[in-house]
Amino acid sequence: MKRIFYMFAVLVSSVSTAQAGIDEAINTATAPIATLIGQIVFFKIPVFGAQLPVVVLWLVVGAVFFTFYMGFINLRGFKHAIQLVRGDYADPNSHGEVSHFQALATAVSGTVGIGNIGGVAVAVTVGGAGATFWLIVAGFLGMSTKFVECTLGVKYRKEFEDGHVSGGPMYYLRQGFSDRGMEGFGKFMGTFYAIGIFIGALGIGNMFQSNQAYVQLNNVSGGALDGLGWLVGLILAGVVFAVIIGGIKSIARVTEKIVPFMAIFYCLFAIIVILMNASTIPQAIANIFSGAFTGEGVAGGALGAMIIGFQRAVFSNEAGIGSASIAHSAVKTDEPITEGIVSLLEPFIDTIVICTITALVIGTAQVAAPDFAGDAQGVAMTSAAFEREFSWFPIPLAFAALLFAFSTMISWSYYGLKGWTYMFGEGERGQTIYKLIFCAFVALGCVVQLGPILDISDALVFLICVPNILGLYFLAPIVKREMNSYFARIDSGEIKKFK
Amino acid sequence: MSNKILVALDGSDGSKRALSAAVAHAKLTGSDLVLAYVIDWSPYSFHTPQELEERHKRRESEIQRANDSILTPEIAALEADGVNVETVVHHGKIAETLLDLGEQNGATQIYIGRRGESRMHTMIFGSVSAALVQASTVPVTVVP
Question: Going by DSSP bridges, is the β-strand pair A44-47/B140-143 parallel, antiparallel, or unpaired?
């Protein structure tokens, strides 16, 4: 253990001493690669004056297909999802195993993050109020994609002899394709996915989060932390280190407990702020609907608003990227379908509830005082909308952002780890190396300019939705068969309620 | 069929006194004993993904440990005494689970030790024995 601490200290100190030089070196070295990958992954086709990234189209077409193919499971399964989470169908003899609620809560804390606070503000700034409408539509469709991927995650997970499980797209891609006689292709897809999720875990699941947490802290402290990024980075890395390597569960447990309350606290205050602007609600909602179909003042009109809404939704709820299916795979159930149904709630909570509430806070503020935010963007804009009613709100909001960022990092550290163990095996030593790398990147996130590195990671995370959704198309008939059989057994009373 | 008495054990002194009282009762009435250990667990708690992954393994080891350190050591002495014993380990809310176990095993009587928690503790977390007395459909003996 001591040795690990030492290695960690060396890693981090080398990061902080060389930060100024590192910044530039990294930027010049990676910028061309980032631009190239970005251009390929976010290749845009012009449609009636709007720029449509192909990858967004790919995700949305997938979501629409799965919604129809599964017979609107996102509506049909909703009530059953709540029953499952409540434990109505939980066999008392499996008490002590991972419950549906626990798997869902963990996956939700991985997706609810800074995107829910800041990403929505970006969407509204660029795509106008109408983007909110499309964000909700995309969240609704994304529920079906999530259903398919999480069902498969459980169905094709790997159970090891000592009882621990590993699951996720890399496992269902490999197994699913090889079951259809395409063994080589399945292996390629699985490895491709594993690499992508590994790099994504270091980027948007890590550096982006620690960077945003630092920026937030610096903002509320009035710039007191200027130039102290390395210190914030070290502290954050230290805490992450304590959790993922030191196994200090209390920190993790506290965060995991606070995050849901933070989310509730955030929504509660958001609703209060919206109600305090009650007179502007009808106008704000009218703006959302009219903007959605006219796209007034938005580049590309209605289509532009639609693209931005869709893009933000995907960024936020990760449906189609497959990451959440890694967290859902741990649940104890004989019916993979049940976990898929439970996972429907994830885009619902993340996008349809939390993002919409944020959008309304901003929307009502815009109606009341069009220039309320000045030049502020992202989280700062949302913060300004709250500040109009509660001058002290930016401080708890920054704290919430910090916690969201932290819990997202913990979840993504696990997703990346699963990509790593898929490639390099389950050995302890390898896992420790991965975790050290992860911690170093937490510190790095606070000191380096994120630009090109983040672009690469961003692009790769979106790139892995290509093999993932391709796999989902191939395996969808299996999911459909299981789904029909499951609901038939519910109807016939073969699967009984325990409560 | 002989009567069954459920005894809640948690390794505390109170639960040991409850067991001796239950043994005396069992011998008098020719009843069998069911020794129950409930591991406090809620399906609504929050965990990291790593903890979820290891949950199954941990559950097995929790059950193993309860059996090894709390339940199994009692069996030999009781059997030498001529009392029939069964043991059961279960996860869940303690009072609720004890009642369920009593029902499943057809227990006609439940013995539990009083833990003697402070008033403050009881106010916040409630008392297991009090909850049991309130909700049970069979007689409950709380042993001080």
Answer: unpaired
Domain of B85: which CATH number?
3.40.50.620
Q: Does A91 lie at the interface with B, CB-CB under 8 angstroms? A: no
Instruction: Tell me how far CA of residue A33 lies from CA of A40, A195, A457, A458, in angstroms.
Output: 11, 17, 11, 13
Rounded CA-CA distance A192/A417 in Å is: 15
The 10s digit of each residue's pLDDT in A110-129 is 888 777 888 888 888 888 88
Chain A residues inside the 8 Å CB shell of B62: 96
Helix, strand, coil tally for chain A in percent (to 5): 80, 0, 20
Whether residue A396 has pLDDT greater than 60: yes
Task: Check if the beta carbon of residue A454 is closer than 8 Å to that of residue A207.
Answer: yes
Which of B52, B62, B93 is the best substitution to test chain A (most A C-beta atoms within 10 A)? B52
* CB nearest A256 (choices: B47, B60, B91): B47
Distance from CA of B141 to the nearest CA of A (A): 25
Range of the domain at B124: 4-143
Using a CB-CB cut-off of 8 Å, the residues of chain B touching A100 are 43
Chain A residues closer than 8 Å to B66 by CB: none
State how many domains chain B has: 1
B 94-123 residues inside an 8 A Cβ radius of A: 97, 100
Distance from CA of A328 to the nearest CA of B (A): 9
Q: What is the mean pLDDT of chain A?
A: 85
Rounded to a whole number, what is the distance in angstroms from the first to the last CA of chain B? 30
Torsion sign (Cα): A265, A266, A268, A273: positive
B86 part of contact set with chain A, CB < 8 Å = no
pLDDT for the residue A310: 87
Q: Which residues pair with B40 in a beta bridge?
A: B92
Q: Which site among A99, A100, A254, A406 would you substitute to test the B interface, given the most B Cβ atoms closer than 10 Å to its Cβ?
A: A99
Token readout for A316 is 């936020």
Residues ≥6 apart with Cβ < 8 Å to A422: A166, A168, A170, A171, A190, A191, A194
Residue in B closest to A95 by C-alpha = B91
Average pLDDT over residues A374-391: 85
Please, what sign has the CA dihedral across residues A139, A153, A414, A59? negative
Confidence of residue A317 (pLDDT cuts 50, 70, 90): confident
On the question of pLDDT at A74 being above 80, the answer is yes
Looking at residue A172, what is its pLDDT? 94
| Domain segments of chain A as ranges | 2-492
Angle at alpha carbon of residue A327, lines to A326 and A328, rounded to 5°: 95
* Residues comprising chain B, all counted: 144
A28: number of Cβ within 10 Å = 10
The reply to whether CATH 1.20.1740.10 applies to domain A2-492 is: yes
Check residue B92 and give left, alpha or beta (phi > 0: left; psi -120 to 50: alpha).
left
Q: With CB atoms and an 8 Å threshold, state whether A164 touches B100.
A: no
Q: Indicate the range of A46-55, A88-97, A134-143, B23-32 predicted with least confidence.
A: A46-55
Best mutation site among B44, B53, B57 for testing chain A: the one with the most A CBs within 10 Å?
Answer: B53
pLDDT digits (tens, 9 = 90+) for A404-429: 888 888 889 999 999 999 999 888 89
